Amino acid sequence: MRRVIVLVLLCACAAFAATVRLYLKDGTYQLVREYKVEGDRLRYYTVERGDWEEIPVELVDLKRTEGEVKVRQESTKEEAAALAAEEKAERAARAEVAKVPVEPGAYLAEAGQVKAIPPAETEMVMDKKRRILQAVSPIPAVSGKGVIEVKGEQSKNVVSSNVPEFYLRLAKEERFGIMRLKVDKGLRIVERISVVPVTKEIIEEQDQVEVFRRQLGDGLYKIWPMKPLEPGEYAVYEFTPAEFNAVSLQTWDFSVRK
Asked: Hey, is 88 helix, strand or coil?
Protein backbone atom coordinates (compact mmCIF):
# COMPACT_ATOMS: atom_id res chain seq x y z
CA MET A 1 0.00 0.00 0.00
CA ARG A 2 2.79 2.43 0.92
CA ARG A 3 4.51 1.67 -2.38
CA VAL A 4 1.35 2.68 -4.20
CA ILE A 5 1.27 5.96 -2.26
CA VAL A 6 4.88 6.67 -3.21
CA LEU A 7 4.16 6.03 -6.90
CA VAL A 8 1.10 8.25 -6.77
CA LEU A 9 3.10 11.08 -5.26
CA LEU A 10 5.83 10.71 -7.85
CA CYS A 11 3.27 10.75 -10.63
CA ALA A 12 1.66 13.81 -9.06
CA CYS A 13 4.64 15.90 -10.13
CA ALA A 14 3.62 15.41 -13.76
CA ALA A 15 -0.02 16.09 -12.96
CA PHE A 16 0.52 19.42 -11.23
CA ALA A 17 -0.90 21.31 -14.21
CA ALA A 18 -4.36 20.12 -13.22
CA THR A 19 -4.29 22.45 -10.22
CA VAL A 20 -1.87 25.18 -11.27
CA ARG A 21 -2.76 28.69 -10.23
CA LEU A 22 -2.22 31.01 -13.18
CA TYR A 23 -1.64 34.39 -11.51
CA LEU A 24 -2.56 37.60 -13.25
CA LYS A 25 -0.86 40.92 -12.58
CA ASP A 26 -4.10 42.35 -11.17
CA GLY A 27 -3.77 39.92 -8.21
CA THR A 28 -6.40 37.40 -9.35
CA TYR A 29 -5.74 33.89 -10.59
CA GLN A 30 -7.36 31.07 -12.53
CA LEU A 31 -7.05 27.34 -11.97
CA VAL A 32 -5.63 25.77 -15.11
CA ARG A 33 -4.55 22.29 -16.12
CA GLU A 34 -1.64 23.52 -18.23
CA TYR A 35 -0.42 26.60 -20.03
CA LYS A 36 2.12 27.63 -22.65
CA VAL A 37 3.45 30.89 -24.01
CA GLU A 38 3.09 31.42 -27.76
CA GLY A 39 4.68 34.71 -28.80
CA ASP A 40 2.82 37.55 -27.06
CA ARG A 41 -0.09 35.28 -26.14
CA LEU A 42 -0.52 32.71 -23.34
CA ARG A 43 -2.73 29.72 -24.00
CA TYR A 44 -4.15 27.82 -21.02
CA TYR A 45 -6.68 25.06 -20.37
CA THR A 46 -9.14 26.40 -17.83
CA VAL A 47 -10.40 23.96 -15.20
CA GLU A 48 -13.55 26.01 -14.62
CA ARG A 49 -14.77 25.97 -18.20
CA GLY A 50 -12.96 22.87 -19.48
CA ASP A 51 -11.61 24.48 -22.63
CA TRP A 52 -8.56 26.23 -24.10
CA GLU A 53 -8.41 30.01 -23.82
CA GLU A 54 -5.76 32.65 -24.35
CA ILE A 55 -4.83 36.07 -23.03
CA PRO A 56 -2.02 38.57 -23.66
CA VAL A 57 1.11 37.30 -21.88
CA GLU A 58 1.75 40.79 -20.51
CA LEU A 59 -1.30 40.36 -18.23
CA VAL A 60 0.15 37.22 -16.60
CA ASP A 61 2.45 37.17 -13.59
CA LEU A 62 4.64 34.35 -14.91
CA LYS A 63 7.31 34.72 -12.25
CA ARG A 64 4.85 34.12 -9.39
CA THR A 65 3.07 31.31 -11.28
CA GLU A 66 6.28 29.42 -12.10
CA GLY A 67 7.66 30.01 -8.61
CA GLU A 68 4.66 28.37 -6.96
CA VAL A 69 4.75 25.43 -9.36
CA LYS A 70 8.43 24.85 -8.57
CA VAL A 71 7.88 24.99 -4.79
CA ARG A 72 4.98 22.53 -4.94
CA GLN A 73 6.91 20.12 -7.17
CA GLU A 74 9.90 20.15 -4.82
CA SER A 75 7.63 19.61 -1.81
CA THR A 76 5.98 16.62 -3.45
CA LYS A 77 9.32 15.09 -4.42
CA GLU A 78 10.62 15.52 -0.87
CA GLU A 79 7.52 13.87 0.58
CA ALA A 80 7.78 10.99 -1.88
CA ALA A 81 11.48 10.55 -1.01
CA ALA A 82 10.68 10.54 2.72
CA LEU A 83 7.97 7.91 2.25
CA ALA A 84 10.31 5.80 0.11
CA ALA A 85 12.99 6.01 2.83
CA GLU A 86 10.43 5.04 5.47
CA GLU A 87 9.32 2.07 3.39
CA LYS A 88 12.96 1.00 3.00
CA ALA A 89 13.48 1.25 6.77
CA GLU A 90 10.34 -0.82 7.40
CA ARG A 91 11.55 -3.52 4.99
CA ALA A 92 14.90 -3.59 6.79
CA ALA A 93 13.13 -3.86 10.16
CA ARG A 94 10.99 -6.77 8.92
CA ALA A 95 14.09 -8.52 7.60
CA GLU A 96 15.83 -7.97 10.95
CA VAL A 97 12.94 -9.48 12.90
CA ALA A 98 12.82 -12.46 10.53
CA LYS A 99 16.43 -13.34 11.41
CA VAL A 100 15.63 -13.83 15.11
CA PRO A 101 14.38 -17.31 16.06
CA VAL A 102 10.88 -17.48 17.51
CA GLU A 103 11.99 -19.36 20.63
CA PRO A 104 12.34 -17.22 23.79
CA GLY A 105 15.96 -16.49 24.66
CA ALA A 106 18.95 -14.23 24.07
CA TYR A 107 20.70 -13.95 20.71
CA LEU A 108 23.98 -12.27 19.80
CA ALA A 109 24.03 -10.14 16.65
CA GLU A 110 27.52 -10.28 15.17
CA ALA A 111 29.00 -9.96 11.68
CA GLY A 112 25.53 -9.96 10.13
CA GLN A 113 24.63 -13.22 11.84
CA VAL A 114 22.33 -14.01 14.76
CA LYS A 115 23.64 -16.63 17.18
CA ALA A 116 21.74 -18.16 20.08
CA ILE A 117 23.41 -17.91 23.50
CA PRO A 118 22.72 -20.84 25.83
CA PRO A 119 21.29 -19.78 29.20
CA ALA A 120 23.77 -19.93 32.06
CA GLU A 121 23.18 -22.38 34.89
CA THR A 122 22.83 -20.11 37.88
CA GLU A 123 22.67 -21.22 41.48
CA MET A 124 21.27 -19.44 44.51
CA VAL A 125 23.37 -19.99 47.61
CA MET A 126 21.71 -19.16 50.94
CA ASP A 127 22.13 -20.69 54.36
CA LYS A 128 24.87 -22.91 52.87
CA LYS A 129 22.33 -24.50 50.54
CA ARG A 130 22.59 -24.46 46.76
CA ARG A 131 19.60 -24.48 44.49
CA ILE A 132 19.57 -24.17 40.71
CA LEU A 133 17.54 -21.22 39.42
CA GLN A 134 15.13 -21.99 36.60
CA ALA A 135 13.20 -19.37 34.67
CA VAL A 136 9.89 -21.17 35.06
CA SER A 137 10.25 -21.97 38.77
CA PRO A 138 10.96 -19.06 41.14
CA ILE A 139 12.83 -20.16 44.26
CA PRO A 140 11.74 -19.09 47.76
CA ALA A 141 14.48 -17.37 49.76
CA VAL A 142 15.01 -17.82 53.51
CA SER A 143 16.01 -15.05 55.90
CA GLY A 144 19.61 -13.95 55.68
CA LYS A 145 22.09 -13.11 52.95
CA GLY A 146 23.15 -15.03 49.88
CA VAL A 147 24.36 -14.82 46.30
CA ILE A 148 23.39 -16.02 42.85
CA GLU A 149 26.42 -17.33 41.04
CA VAL A 150 27.65 -19.03 37.87
CA LYS A 151 30.45 -21.57 37.92
CA GLY A 152 33.74 -20.66 36.24
CA GLU A 153 35.65 -17.39 36.14
CA GLN A 154 35.15 -16.82 32.41
CA SER A 155 32.30 -17.33 30.01
CA LYS A 156 32.73 -19.51 26.94
CA ASN A 157 30.69 -16.95 25.00
CA VAL A 158 33.26 -14.37 23.91
CA VAL A 159 31.98 -11.33 21.97
CA SER A 160 34.12 -9.63 19.35
CA SER A 161 32.96 -6.07 20.12
CA ASN A 162 32.96 -4.01 23.30
CA VAL A 163 29.57 -2.69 22.22
CA PRO A 164 27.81 -6.00 21.59
CA GLU A 165 24.24 -6.11 20.32
CA PHE A 166 21.71 -8.64 21.51
CA TYR A 167 18.16 -9.64 20.67
CA LEU A 168 16.01 -10.76 23.56
CA ARG A 169 12.78 -12.59 22.89
CA LEU A 170 10.67 -12.75 26.04
CA ALA A 171 8.14 -15.42 26.92
CA LYS A 172 6.36 -12.78 29.00
CA GLU A 173 6.92 -9.12 29.79
CA GLU A 174 9.68 -8.85 32.38
CA ARG A 175 12.58 -6.59 33.26
CA PHE A 176 15.76 -7.16 31.31
CA GLY A 177 19.14 -5.66 30.51
CA ILE A 178 22.87 -6.28 30.83
CA MET A 179 24.79 -6.67 34.09
CA ARG A 180 28.42 -7.00 35.16
CA LEU A 181 29.45 -10.18 36.95
CA LYS A 182 32.06 -10.20 39.69
CA VAL A 183 34.75 -12.88 39.45
CA ASP A 184 35.42 -14.59 42.79
CA LYS A 185 37.44 -17.81 43.33
CA GLY A 186 36.35 -19.99 40.46
CA LEU A 187 32.92 -18.49 39.94
CA ARG A 188 31.09 -15.36 38.87
CA ILE A 189 28.67 -13.58 41.16
CA VAL A 190 25.50 -12.50 39.36
CA GLU A 191 23.80 -10.70 42.25
CA ARG A 192 23.67 -10.54 46.04
CA ILE A 193 20.46 -11.18 47.95
CA SER A 194 19.29 -10.03 51.37
CA VAL A 195 16.08 -11.27 52.96
CA VAL A 196 14.60 -9.21 55.79
CA PRO A 197 13.80 -11.63 58.70
CA VAL A 198 10.30 -10.47 59.69
CA THR A 199 8.79 -9.07 56.49
CA LYS A 200 10.62 -11.53 54.22
CA GLU A 201 11.27 -8.65 51.82
CA ILE A 202 13.91 -9.64 49.26
CA ILE A 203 16.53 -7.06 48.29
CA GLU A 204 18.49 -7.82 45.14
CA GLU A 205 21.80 -6.06 44.38
CA GLN A 206 22.79 -6.09 40.71
CA ASP A 207 25.58 -4.26 38.90
CA GLN A 208 23.52 -3.17 35.92
CA VAL A 209 24.92 -1.63 32.74
CA GLU A 210 23.13 1.29 31.11
CA VAL A 211 21.68 0.08 27.84
CA PHE A 212 19.70 1.23 24.86
CA ARG A 213 16.49 -0.70 24.22
CA ARG A 214 14.52 -0.90 20.99
CA GLN A 215 11.33 -2.90 20.63
CA LEU A 216 11.05 -4.73 17.32
CA GLY A 217 7.82 -6.60 17.94
CA ASP A 218 5.69 -8.26 20.59
CA GLY A 219 8.13 -9.50 23.21
CA LEU A 220 11.14 -8.91 20.95
CA TYR A 221 13.77 -6.33 21.88
CA LYS A 222 17.23 -5.29 20.74
CA ILE A 223 19.61 -4.10 23.47
CA TRP A 224 23.16 -2.80 23.48
CA PRO A 225 25.31 -0.87 26.01
CA MET A 226 25.29 2.91 25.99
CA LYS A 227 29.08 2.94 26.47
CA PRO A 228 31.79 0.49 25.40
CA LEU A 229 32.21 -2.30 27.94
CA GLU A 230 35.47 -2.75 29.80
CA PRO A 231 37.07 -6.21 29.53
CA GLY A 232 35.32 -8.50 31.96
CA GLU A 233 32.40 -10.83 32.57
CA TYR A 234 28.81 -9.86 31.80
CA ALA A 235 25.38 -11.32 31.25
CA VAL A 236 22.14 -10.45 29.52
CA TYR A 237 19.46 -10.92 32.16
CA GLU A 238 15.72 -11.26 32.47
CA PHE A 239 14.04 -11.22 35.83
CA THR A 240 10.85 -10.66 37.74
CA PRO A 241 11.30 -8.27 40.69
CA ALA A 242 11.33 -10.32 43.90
CA GLU A 243 7.75 -10.97 44.99
CA PHE A 244 6.09 -13.51 47.28
CA ASN A 245 9.45 -14.30 48.92
CA ALA A 246 10.81 -15.88 45.73
CA VAL A 247 13.60 -15.16 43.27
CA SER A 248 13.19 -15.47 39.48
CA LEU A 249 16.22 -14.72 37.31
CA GLN A 250 17.57 -16.00 33.99
CA THR A 251 20.94 -15.02 32.53
CA TRP A 252 22.92 -15.51 29.34
CA ASP A 253 26.59 -14.97 30.18
CA PHE A 254 29.28 -13.52 27.87
CA SER A 255 32.82 -12.26 28.11
CA VAL A 256 34.51 -9.14 26.75
CA ARG A 257 38.24 -9.74 26.27
CA LYS A 258 41.07 -7.32 25.52
From this structure: helix
